[in-house]
Amino acid sequence: MAMAMHGLPQAKGRLAIIAGAGALPHHVAEAARRQGEDPFIIALSREADADWTGFDHSTLAIGDFAAISRTFATEGIDRVVLSGAVRQRPEWRDIRPTLKTLAKVPSVLRTLVSGGDDAVLRMAMQLIEVSGARIIGAHEVVPDLLADAGPIGAHAPADKDRRDIAAGMAAAEALGALDVGQGAVAVGGRVVALEGAEGTDAMLERVATLKAGGRVSARRRGVLVKLCKPQQDERADLPAIGPSTVAAAEAAGLAGIAVEAGRALVVERSEVVEAANRSGLFIIGIEREGRGGRP
Predict the structure, then answer these.
(1) Which residue blocks in 105-196 are alpha helix, DSSP H?
(2) Neighbouring residues of 98: CB distance < 8 A, sequence distance ≥ 6
(3) Residue 139 has what pLDDT?
(4) Which residues, in sequence order, are bridge partners of residue 193?
(5) How distant, in Å, are the alpha carbons of 71, 87, 142 from that of 197?
(6) How far is CA 267 from the centre of its chain?
(7) Is 140:4 a contact under the CB 8 Å cutoff?
(8) What's the predicted TM-score (pTM) here?
(9) Contact criterion met (CB below 8 Å) for 97 and 104
(10) E strands, the chain, where?
(11) What is the pLDDT of residue 111?
């Protein structure tokens, strides 16, 4: 990660940001511009929801590798950041290969049909790199988005919260190994929800419903835990939280949020901290066993 601490890698070509949904792509683009880059934005159709006025940009389908490859050549792009949420897998009929990627189409179709999210992401990354650009992580452009170890904000977990963190970590680790999701919620030392394709905020809405219906104790608060998958390629899809995560955690009656230190993103940090402090929630960066510590 040394490269992340010294700004962007030196290169003569242009940086592209392939932008999905959420606020993160815009943060990355603005940070890149502050560092002297002139980023070109490839906004994914049916996914990207930011206003890209003021940035050179085009809107392309996620599976249109022919158009993406042409854009790389036309704009002189040699580095790419994948940033933001992608909620829909491309359909096989949406895949438009280049001559370089044509031979990979059978494996692409197999991955789309049977692969987990991480497998699909790795496949997309390989095809992008075959198209002539190198993928770098969002944290290499904006290293201060990474969660630090320890409390982030005014509140810290109590002993009972640390038991929930430990339970949530074990569940998130197992879930990630199955290439399903990155998050889990534990209440009273018991895992009550696992993140699936619906995403973190929808999982927290489910926890709120379970508490309201008496399926989970409303007297006990609980913790959201988000970790990298064991097989995670850290250049893309790092776990992330933002203001909406804090709002959803508060609505679910949770005590706080724990994310993996150095391997999770805190988007709109000042707003996240302000919202957490106001609602009495803790946010903490935790280190996995074998990576420097315990919760």
Answers:
(1) 105-114, 117-130, 138-141, 159-177
(2) 65, 66, 69, 130, 131
(3) 87
(4) 185
(5) 30, 8, 27
(6) 10
(7) yes
(8) 0.80
(9) yes
(10) 14-19, 40-44, 57-60, 77-83, 134-136, 150-151, 183-187, 190-194, 223-226, 240-241, 256-260, 265-266, 282-286
(11) 58
Question: What's the full length of the chain, in residues?
Answer: 295
* pLDDT < 50 positions in the chain: 1-7, 9-11, 292-294
Q: Are 17 and 32 in contact (CB under 8 A)?
A: yes
Asked if 258 and 223 touch (Cβ cutoff 8 Å), the reply is: yes
What pLDDT score does 210 carry? Answer: 95
Q: How wide is the angle at C-alpha 71 spanned by C-alphas 68 and 74, nearest 5°? A: 155
What are the Cα distances from residue 221, in Å, to 108, 165, 247, 264? 43, 12, 15, 23
Predicted confidence at residue 289, as pLDDT, reads 73
What per-residue confidence (pLDDT) applies to 250?
Answer: 97
Radius of gyration for the chain, computed over Cα atoms and rounded to the nearest angstrom:
19
C-alpha atoms less than 13 angstroms from C-alpha of 2 in its C-beta half-sphere = 0
Q: Is 180:196 a contact under the CB 8 Å cutoff?
A: yes
Query: What is the spatial distance between Cα 72 and Cα 69, in angstroms, rounded to a whole number?
Result: 5
